[in-house]
Amino acid sequence: xxxxxxxxxxxxxxxxxxxxxxxxxxxxxxxxxxxxxxxxxxxxxxxxxxxxxxxxxxxxxxxxxxxxxxxxxxxxxxxxxxxxxxxxxxxxxxxxxxxxxxxxxxxxxxxxxxxxxxxxxxxxxxxxxxxxxxxxxxxxxxxxxxxxxxxxxxxxxxxxxxxxxxxxxxxxxxxxxxxxxxxxxxxxxxxxxxxxxxxxxxxxxxxxxxxxxxxxxxxxxxxxxxxxxxxxxxxxxxxxxxxxxxxxxxxxxxxxxxxxxxxxxxxxxxxxxxxxxxxxxxxxxxxxxxxxxxxxxxxxxxxxxxxxxxxxxxxxxxxxxxxxxxxxxxxxxxxxxxxxxxx
Length: 343
Known about the structure:
- The chain contains twelve helices and twelve strands.
- It is α/β, with parallel strands linked by helices.
- The strands form three sheets. A seven-stranded parallel beta sheet has the order 5-6-7-8-9-10-11. A three-stranded antiparallel beta sheet has the order 1-2-3, with helices on both faces. Strands 4-12 form a two-stranded antiparallel sheet.
């Protein structure tokens, strides 16, 4: 049943295909990771085949249905609607270094072919600032002076901790620091405190998980936006957000399969300006994928293309029956949210 939502609705406006059509093409997979990431050893995702190509619905399991419904809207939009014409055929991407010991950095960095930018996870629960410094120092050693280094704290520091950490790691020539603190007010304060170091501050969670994703731009709390296609409801809404913010944007993934990464690459390819390498090389963190041609970096780039699902891989990495049922039930609940008349 078609459903159109008002502009102020928490989910974007779109025309819905029948739920049965979504479920008929759905495959739930459980993909092992090469390295533990975000506390996960496997990444579950639901992929589908729409008239315009493969698409993905993969909000993390802990997300509630209202938030997850926005991810479903993005999946439907990418699979069932024509997308804006891309301006680029390939996207420069960064390596992503999980919160591993310094001794484990080299093989992970090497898996990102040709990438000259590395995003390093810091502020991991249970780790110390010394762990972060050692990891960052090792990445700098391996990449040399020409490599670009950015940090991602996922909101894990308070303002004082962030200031201390950024000062300690500034000697490694930081490109920017992503989400050092959780709130918009904290981001504004840390941006002011570290301004003398000329290290930009970027927002991720304060955009994709916020009721008002433009609040961080209006508050002049950051210098850059990190955007993801699925959490923002799809490519067109993400482009609109960037335009309204007036800030440079970096497109990133949410540990997607190559299908979700292809959505992010398409978003990056349609932005009028793309000044930074994007966080779309994360297929290298997966030990398995849903396609025989995963979107891994080659010479530091990934292509902008639709991903062909591989039936053998979908069968090999099919999620257990209980998890398959869980994802299908979740999709149906999120579909009901999108289908509900606007208040």
